[in-house]
Write a structure and sequence with these properties.
With about 260 residues, the chain is of the alpha+beta class. Helix content is about 45%, strand content about 15%. A 6-stranded antiparallel beta sheet has the order 4-3-2-1-6-5.
Length: about 260
Amino acid sequence: MLVASAFSTAAWICILLSVLGLSTTPSVVQTFAWAKGRAENPYFTATIHVGLRNRVVQLEPAPNVSLPRDVPSTITTSWQDEESCSIYSMNETCQACQDAVGATSTWAITSLLTQTVQVATDLQRTTPFGDVNCQKVMGVVTGLYGLISGLMALADFANHCWRTQPRTFSISTYPEVGTIESSFEAGPGTILIAIATVLKIVDVICHALVPTPTPRHAKPPSSIGPLPEYLVLGELDAPTRLGYPLNEAGSLGEYRGDPGSL
């Protein structure tokens, strides 16, 4: 279960970094974009960073070409802006990405919260004293939920925000630039969340393979009182906390209701 907690912690870090794609700060969106695109024509080259709340476009004019004065070199557009897609000829696919981004944002935040619970569950199961049946079930169910929902969210985002984006488009407000060639691919945010999703597989396998202590497989005696009395039934003479040497664990079967004796 320590191995599982290590993989879960790594997954949690990946999810945390990918959630930074929710930022509205252009530099952060550029670093943790969920999709990246490149658009170019004879006048300029644009690098597109698709975040979960904003889209950031960096424009670089071609040699001996100057951008119009009213066009900044970095353009940040909120997905909440009703006009965020209307100026592009690829309005339909842009709108589909806008819808997918909203659903993915909710899932990303939920995933971060459930992964925090998953790490705690892994650590709970590192000793016979703390290991209980409900934690094993929770570990498997939460892990599978995170794995399946992660794959679905990734597939939805990929299909609408970079795989199906057109190879050419135009901008209605600047028709003089003509047709723009474009290409899109997965960004750092998507890659990080994909890694986290794969790491969940190891966690689920660990929870499924590691059995709970034998005394947990039967209904506890009716004489069992407080929770510590039930937990101490995990295994006699077994560690009560992580790192406690087995040969120094003592006879936990002598516990008589005093938490200090544990």
